[in-house]
From TrEMBL:
Membrane-crossing segments per the record: none
Protein name: NAD-dependent epimerase/dehydratase
Ranges for domain PRISE-like Rossmann-fold: 73-363
Domain of life: Bacteria
InterPro entries referenced in this protein's UniProt entry, alphabetically: NAD(P)-bd_dom_sf, PRISE-like_Rossmann-fold
Length: 364
């Protein structure tokens, strides 16, 4: 399906993308820039080749944010960042403060009309420390499900968003994505690139492309979120009055089973596949000690990133594919409000692999 058009920005519209170097932030910067927006991207370091004007700031420092944003007057803020900590208690303190401090730093300018926040389906599944445990909402997940009775930094980020938006006199939206696949390097949660790197290592060592996850994930239905679709959804919600002050699930619109998807990804990546067999085989175990193999692949193909930890997040893909619960999200709230974009997940994977090959991140 072709991209869903969004209204052009008004002459005074400007966007601040927070976390501009990540999977979602990169897609948002591209989407907004292509749509004629004036875009600033906040991150610690500039993003090579980005069309956004770089704003350097440390999200964990209220002082750094105040200094960096003193002269900024964005009309729309897109918050796409998080900082992983050792415990959920620390996640709550750090990630809530990042949202609250950013909005506080923008408050004196009185320019912000809308704030969009990306979270995820851990809203329904629980945080890493209690992931998929206890009484979970039934699938497909609906946005009006009660919060789980466990600490969850997504809840605290939402609370900070609501309070900050009220102080700014702005509308808000929350975008609960499933596993996001998109173009970025050095991201802590990047299944698309992780699987491509797994396949490259398997091909170089003559090993099969082994599914690392659970029997539930191999046989059950699941969905995902393409970063480009997520970016479109955020811009749509930020510019559509009917979408104001709501939380939305954001998934591609199709569902699939890994037992069908895995062989197709293997074929696209040029490796023999092997499915679930008796028990999960996590990537952190399969790929242990793979750094020298990746270094050889990089040297042989002249690839761009020699640091394996910047192109593969084994732990996160293990977490997603190792789940023993079905994970599906309902998109009715968005559909009824007018967002009709649809992406076939297999196509999203194949386009992503092609882009990484073209950029010299994975071998051709």
């Amino acid at each position: 399906m072709t991209e869903q058009p969004t209204p052009p920005p008004s002459p005074d519209s400007s966007a601040l993308v927070v976390g501009a170097s990540g999977i979602t932030g990169t897609a948002l910067v591209d989407r907004l820039s292509a749509g004629g927006w004036d875009v600033a991207g906040l991150s610690r370091r500039p993003v090579p080749g980005s069309p956004a004007r770089h704003v350097a700031a440390d999200l964990r420092s209220a002082g750094s944010l105040a200094d960096a944003l003193r002269a900024e007057r964005p009309t729309h803020v897109f918050f796409c960042a998080w900082s992983r900590q050792q415990t959920e208690a620390e996640n709550i303190v750090v990630n809530r403060a990042m949202v609250a401090d950013l909005l506080a730093a923008l408050a004196p300018g009185r320019s912000v009309a809308h704030v969009a926040l990306v979270t995820g389906l851990k809203h329904y599944l629980g945080p890493f420390e209690a992931y998929g445990q206890g009484d979970l909402p039934d699938t497909p997940f609906l946005e009006d499900a009660e919060r789980l009775p466990v600490p969850n930094f997504y809840y605290d980020q939402e609370d900070a968003l609501w309070a900050g938006a009220a102080e700014l006199g702005a509308t808000w939206s929350v975008h609960r994505s499933h596993t996001v696949i998109g173009h970025a390097v050095g991201n802590a949660m990047n299944m698309g690139l992780t699987l491509a790197v797994q396949a490259a290592i398997c091909r170089a060592t003559g090993r099969p492309f082994v599914f690392p996850g659970s029997e539930t994930q191999w046989n059950g239905l699941v969905d995902m979120t393409d970063a480009g679709l997520l970016a479109e959804h955020m811009v749509w919600a930020a510019t559509t009055p009917a979408a104001a002050d709501q939380a939305f699930n954001v998934v591609n619109g199709d569902v699939f089973r890994w037992r069908r998807m895995w062989p197709r990804l293997a074929a696209a990546l040029g490796v023999e596949h092997e499915g679930f067999s008796g028990a999960p085989r996590p990537l952190e175990q399969q790929m242990a000690g793979a750094e020298p193999v990746w270094a050889r692949i990089v040297a042989e193909h002249g690839l761009a990133e020699p640091d394996l930890s910047r192109v593969a997040s084994w732990w996160h893909t293990d977490s997603d594919l190792g789940r023993d619960v079905e994970v599906l999200a309902d998109m009715s709230r968005s559909r009824l409000a007018g967002f009709t974009r649809y992406v076939r997940t297999e196509d999203a994977f194949l386009r992503l692999f092609d882009r990484y090959r073209a950029d010299g991140v994975i071998p051709g």
